[in-house]
Amino acid sequence: MSQASQKPNDPDSNPHARRLPRGSGIVAHVSSLPGDLGIGDFGPSAYQFVDYLQRCGQTIWQVLPLGPTGYGNSPYQSPSAFAGNPLYVSLQHLVTEGFLDAGDLLVDPPFSVDRVDFERVGPWRQERLLKAAHRHTQNPTRALPTFRQSYSRFRHEQASWLDDYALYIALKELHGNVAWPHWDPAYVHRDPAALAEARQRLAPRIEAECFIQFQFYRQWHDLKKYANDRHVRLVGDMPIFVAHDSADVWANQHLFPLTPEGKPTVVAGVPPDYFSVIGQLWGNPLYKWDLLAERGYDWWIERFRYAFSMFDLVRIDHFRGFEAYWEIPGDAVDARTGRWVKGPGIALFRAAEKALGPLPIIAEDLGIITKEVDSLRDDLGAPGMRVLQFAFGDDDKASEYQPHNYPHHCLVYTGTHDNDTTVGWFRSEAGEGTTRNEEQVQRERHNARVYMRTHGDEIHWDMIRLAWSSVADTAIAPLQDILGLGTEARMNLPGTLGGNWRWRVLPSQLTPQIADRLRHLTEEYGRIGKHQPL
């Protein structure tokens, strides 16, 4: 294995570093939680999972983006940077509050409990959410006065994004759910008279969407309080880019490089890398950073403000894009024709700090990282990420992911949602989800065995122990790794559509034996939750 002669970057010497207390946690998306209603949500299983984290001695629950999902069901392609996914609203809670009847939750035939059938679950849940919203509209006194006051306050405080988002949803349904550039031109170009008429004509659907968003917001904050009261921090995930077919782009077309018809002239992605020889063509429109700078980065500041109200810490996905991003022509067939373009750099974050105070962020600094990206992260005092699955190659980059080279001021992960599970990674064949050939796969296995002094029979526990024993302030593993699951439990294979984001855990898999084993490791390496005040 390649060894580093010195630590490549040492954030520990950075006087601006905002250190996290030594702790550990689990990545488990809300959609992956157990339950009989087709997808994990903010209902009883979420509270039970917090209890399970507490039994495991964990102080962090990290989730993927919580916004509505778009094409391909990806949480990184959302129709809103602010809205919540209606699928996560607990229908059981709506029954308790009288907005639904118990019979509304009967499912025939039953939903799968180990995979999310988005095609069936989505319409089924939407029908019930709209029914609950209709009951609220028809008889608003059904709700307690405190509920009505909270709802009114939510409508007022979140109006800057909520009004446009609810109208966007109503108009999108009116046009058969096609992307907004294909709507009636008056709506595409946001003609004031046309929008005013639409708000009046579509008022019931707009009101319903506001009610659904309030339920999401309210239920999430109740869950967050429950977790915080048990010394569990909630870590969110903020994608740097927004989807083209989104309320954000439709309502703020001047902030994005678009043609007069609303199509992006340049889009986001990454060049060829570990996951793909042709790069990744994400398709998100890029920002007009010069115009945003002139406006004092107001849209971004509001986005930060909302995210910090939702989470205790926020992982900034594709952090390197703030230093420089891969700009791809809007008509490109893949990402190879892109080029690097300078991003806003420190100016954006300084503006946000001035408005909001210290920024509780984690920099997702994976991929093609330069010294300029490292400097931006360090200037902010934000911790970066290390991924153990990247630590066993023969390239120079691998040394940065080997624990003996870690600074304290970082988070170490066994893997991420874009990686295979640790068991799947260790047993995988060449080319499965990466650009590795058979010789590289064999060398990585050998290097991992040598580094950890293991035969690999319980490779997931070997990797968890390696992460937990490291000097990194925070150690995190995906739930699939805690459970020792294989490739069948992989969350996402980058660059592919279909079959992603569907994995769910079964209640029977969250055993006391696994919890006790993880807690023992957590105690052994000084990461136990009882020592971690919020």
Structure description:
The protein has 534 residues and is α/β, with parallel strands linked by helices. The protein has a domain at 252-311 and 320-360 and 370-382. Helix content is 38%, strand content 10%. It is built from 18 helices and 12 strands. The strands form 2 sheets. Strands 9-6-3-2-1-12-11-10 form an 8-stranded parallel beta sheet. Strands 5-4-7-8 form a 4-stranded antiparallel beta sheet, with no helix packed on it. It starts with 22 loop residues before the first strand and ends in a 10-residue tail after the last helix.
Radius of gyration: 23 Å
Number of strands: 12
Describe the largest sheet.
8 strands, parallel
Poorly predicted regions: 1-8
**Spatial separation of the terminal alpha carbons:** 39 Å
Quaternary structure = single chain
Helix and strand succession? EHEHHHHHHHEHEEHHEEEHEHEEHHHEHH
Number of helices: 18
Shape: globular
Strand percent estimate: 5-15%
**Helix/strand structural class:** alpha/beta
Write a short abstract of this structure:
The protein has 534 residues and is of the alpha/beta class.
